[in-house]
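S1.2 Input.
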Amino acid sequence: MTTTIGIIGVGEIASAIVDGLCADDAPTARGTEATAPDIVLSPRSRERAADLAERHPRVEVAADNQDVVDRSDLIIVSVLPDQVDDVLTALEIPADRTVVSAVAGVPFDRLRALLPHDPRIVRVIPLPAVRERRGVTAVFPAESATVELFDRLGGTVVAETEAMFSTLSATTATMSAHFAFLEVITDWLIDQGWARTDAETIVRGQFVGLGTTLAETDTPISELVAAHETPGGLNAQLRAAWMDEATRARLAGALTAVLERVRG
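S1.3 Output.
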């Protein structure tokens, strides 16, 4: 990859992208080797940006956001949703640039209105696992440089429409609930007399292997459910008692509510 990557908004996700891109050469999702691109960071979040530049020799901190644009071919915008209007209207982004928006909930039409010179616009949903090159990133629309970039970080799924892209955005709202599920199990063990350190060690050890199963197999998830229980067994008992039809319906309803919020 020869494209220079600019990043405006150096938060946790942007840092994960930089760390993933600058990791030692490793096979990409499509099985080829690639070296780190040149990366130019905006100076806000100065301490975080300076740390990335110190750790990665191909990373520099720009003088300001316009300097990021001027020095980059592909610009990742990773600011908060309520900052995007102010950030983009202050910039001159020419038509030959690609603007990759990692800003949640900001649709194409709004981005287009903020970019009068009509650069290419792509929306993405990067996840923290891009730091380890294991994060699958949702992309809309298909754009070769963007797909290549995020293929290096774990792979991509390209949505056919912005509406379909929004459904993937909604599913990212389940991450904290996943950890809350583990928290309930941990707290239950503590109530049974385990020390917190031991309880968390037990729970982490139990579930880390399940994550590996997801990462290293393509077994349908519905089959993984069956593979991890026996008829009448303990796993089947708990799943039936907890993940009943009413609970499934509440989860689906919560996802629909998040989707409605994402779509505005």
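S1.4 Remarks. The chain has twelve helices and eight strands.
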